[in-house]
Every structure is written in C-alpha cells, then in structure tokens.
Sequence to fold (241 residues):
Amino acid sequence: MATSSEDRDRPDTDEAPPGETDAQDTRSEEDGEGRADAAAPARASRPAKQAGAARRPAGKKPGARPRAAAQPQGGSLGKSMILFLIIIGGLAAAFAYFGREPAAGTAGPKWKPGDKSQVEVTLVSTDIKDLACWSADEISGRHCAFESPTQGWSKGDADDKKLLRPYTTTDRVQFLAAGLWSEPALTSGKLPSARFAVKCTYTVEGKMKRPGIRWSSEGAWLDRTDDWYTGLLSDCKLITP
Fold:
C-alpha cells in the first residue's frame, strides 16, 4: 500500500512522549515507596513473642493445680518419740550407775578398825529406801538389809544405827555405814529435792567380804569382788551449796 508523505512524517501515536514516560516512572516509584512505608508500621505494631516464655508441658491442662506433697504418717512420728524417750532413759540410767562407781584405778583409803575420818557423802532424798546391800556377815553388830539377793535380814531388827548401806563420797570413795538417816541433820527438816552432800565423821569398824550392792530399789544387785569398809556415820552436817 502506498503511503503519503504526511503519513510518513506523522509521529507514532502508540509511543508516549519522553517527558510523559519519565513522569509515569516517577509516580510508580513513589507509589511503591508509599506502599512499603505503609506496610512497615503494620509489621512493627505486631507484638513479638516474649523471649523465654514458659511453655505448658505436654499433656498438662492450663490452670491445673500442682499435686500436694504426701504428708508423713503420724505413726512414724510417734515411733520416733518413743525411741527418743527410750534412749534418754537409758542414758540417764547409765549416768546414774557410772556416777556411783569410782574411777578405774582409783586408790582407796587405807583405813583400819578404830580410825575416824571426815567424809563428805553425796546423796539424794530417796537414798533412804534405794541404797541396800546383802551379805550373811555381821560386823560389830551391824549388818546389811538382806542376807541374800532374795532374802531379807532375819537375825534381828532393822534399826538405822545397825543397818549398813552403801555410800559414795564426793571424791568417789565407797564404803558401808550405818546411822546416817537417824542423824538430826537429816531428820529435822525437809531434805533438798536435788542431789546434796553431808559432812560426817566415819568411824571404821571392819571390812565386809564381797558384799552385794544395790543403788536403786528397782535396780539389779551388783556382786562386788572387793571387800568394803564398814562403820558408823555420826556428827553429820548438811553442806549448803
């Protein structure tokens, strides 16, 4: 087809002028930046998960209460108290027994019949019924409360001035003596409730061979392998602590 010179000189209407093309590109860039700026606050406003947030254990419902720890049974506490009391009672009995016994290797006094010695005897008020000895022997008319571990004295009365009992001094000397509980210092008033001591004159009269000794009316007899001095206690005075 032939074209005229006007057609050849007419610009192509499908192509935009250069200035208009640049303007369109500029608007496209501005629109893109605007959309990016609008999206940024939206992303920033979304709350982030807290770091280290505790996760619920698998299989555990929310709001479930923890199980209470099992309480100890009352029976075990009662058994512990009984065991404690038994131990304390055993220790008290052991201290009472060993407190009566002289220290191993302690040399006793060298008395002979007729000697008089000042002694300080340690006592408690119940010793009048707790202290006892057994022997079939009689020394200067004085004797123990028992002839044997199971038989009381059957050869006479039980006058305090004739009845021998075991005693321990404050310096751990032990002997048998009569007359203490008939002394005015121990009969004229109320005796102390705690352990106390009396100072007396001890008149030695002899020795008893291997007597049996008992420090408590409920206790067992202790068979001694040594001989014990016997005598009379007099002129006793209560020692004030």
User: Anything to note?
Assistant: Residues 129-239 form one domain. Residues 34 and 98 are 103 Å apart (CA to CA). Residues 18-45 form the longest helix (28 residues). Confidence is low (pLDDT under 50) at residues 1-24, 36-45, 47-54, 94-99.
